[in-house]
Automatic annotation (TrEMBL):
Residues 121-162 form the Oligopeptidase F N-terminal domain. GO terms for biological process: proteolysis. NCBIfam families: M3_fam_3. InterPro entries: M3B_PepF_2, OligopepF_N_dom, OligoPept_F_C, Pept_M3A_M3B_dom, Pept_M3B_clade3, Peptidase_M32_Taq. Transmembrane segments: none annotated. The keyword Methyltransferase does not apply. This is Oligoendopeptidase, pepF/M3 family. One of its GO terms (molecular function) is metal ion binding. Keywords: Hydrolase, Metal-binding, Metalloprotease, Protease, Zinc. The keyword Membrane does not apply. Belongs to the peptidase M3 family.
Amino acid sequence: MTTLPAWDLTPIYPSCDSKEFSCDLETVATESKALEVNLQVVGSDLKQCIQHYELVLDYMENLHAYSSACLTTDTSNPLYLKAMSQVEEVSLVVQHLEVLFLNYLAKKREEVELRTREGGDLEAYRFPLHELLEDQKHQMPPELEDLASDLARSGTDAFSRQQEAMGSSIHTQWDEKTIKTVVQLRSEATNADRSIRKRAFEKELALWKAYEVPFAAALNGVKGTTLTLDKMRLFTSPLDRSLFQSRIDRPILDALIATLEASLPLFRKYLKKKAELLGLTGCAFYDLFAPVGKKGSHFTYEEAQEFIVKQFSVFSKEMGDFADHAFKARWIDAESRNGKVGGAYDTSFPLAKQSRILSNFDYTYSGVSTLAHELGHAWHDSIVLPKSNLLRTYPMTLAETASIFSEFLVFQGALANSTADQRLALVEQFVQDATQVCVDILSRYYFESEVFTRRNEGDLSAGELCSIMEEAQKKTYGDGLVEYHPYMWAAKGHYYSSDFSFYNYPYAFGQLFALGLYEKSRHAGSSFPEQYKTLLSATGSLSAREVASLMDIDLADRKFWQQGMDVIASYIGELCDAPVH
């Protein structure tokens, strides 16, 4: 088996201690100070100030993406930790500038209104500038915003880093010769041998139990701080703030959640069928990712590369060429190793106009699908990176569109080339993933809602957090599972973000939105890839509702969300009709 590749970050910076990295840190500080002075000048040009502000943001994003990319591949590396600290320190200057810039825009409100009208020289900035003006209404006085930013380094950000570092490195003895991290234990969830899955699950729970106190303390710190700051910023709740950040409104979220809730019996039916196919009386949490079917579950990395490029190319040659370049230019870090975080993500570097992908490739179809997912994000990046900062920054809801659409392209290609046994495995894999995005995501939404409600009354113990999590899973998975995972609150780093609460429903939004788009593509003909690019290009400069309207979609209409759910339902129906061997 060939060695999996590590990514090449040298086109971004030679290293964390390079002069280029240090120079860009200095550039952020000096340009921020220069703009800060210019914002106070009477008669300063609005357009020039916007462009100057975007330049600072580009440098800041480049530095943050790079230091984060380094640290997530080796969470205890002192050089990477220092670099992250340096970036966080200079980010305080930028965060101070952001406050001043929003106040500057507020003073220029009438000019913004005039110049962003149709035909105005800032017409393209209509939505992002008005969004910033709305954001300004939720801003504390500058001195309090500065204090909040400074305290975050030793508070919520530190708690997040703690969860990330512990979640990637805590380990236990697997056998006489082998030690496994919790990430490696979780990867055994895809093992075909149930005894191994169960053993890994039990050892994983024991690890979380052993370290539950620091994880609970970190989560309480993050959620408590979030509640305090959101209240000070005049948001009615963390969910209210999340909806603003997601560029959607409550009617859209309600339509989405109602669709998910109505689908729960469908997914429970699937889980009971999966238990039957596995020869079990019922699925436990550690059976959720168990492979079904005998063939088609193993891919070399090279096979994964070839297959993804081919399927992307079927949809769009341009998209296929992009994926091919990403593989060949070593944009992907694929190996699972000690100190590297679990899961997968895509990150972009605005100065280099490039992306990088972290994954933990496991030679399964799921690993192929994950690569396709992250390459979808990177493709989205490539479309918006040529735009200026305020016109390309899209919300999480729309961020998942391209990734899930790309996954589905690969899935369709796999089905077209499958045998009967392989098709069973592929359909089950798709439904398995959809269950995570629709059912598990809903459980996380319930969990976080309840945690915020109860955190208002005081700290929550690890036991209480486990109880809330298990109740949320019972409410969604129901009798589809016979055993749950009470420590998912410790395992999922998303809960430890103070910048974005409810880091869950956007995935369901993206899943059903992408499937709805795919249904449209089946009837749109050869013009669709270009229409799709136009939609992705607009994700940074319009609200989610306006982006969807480009395809004549009403996001507050449950009928649209149901179209995406009907795609999933068709495959659940096929699976449930499959004979048991």
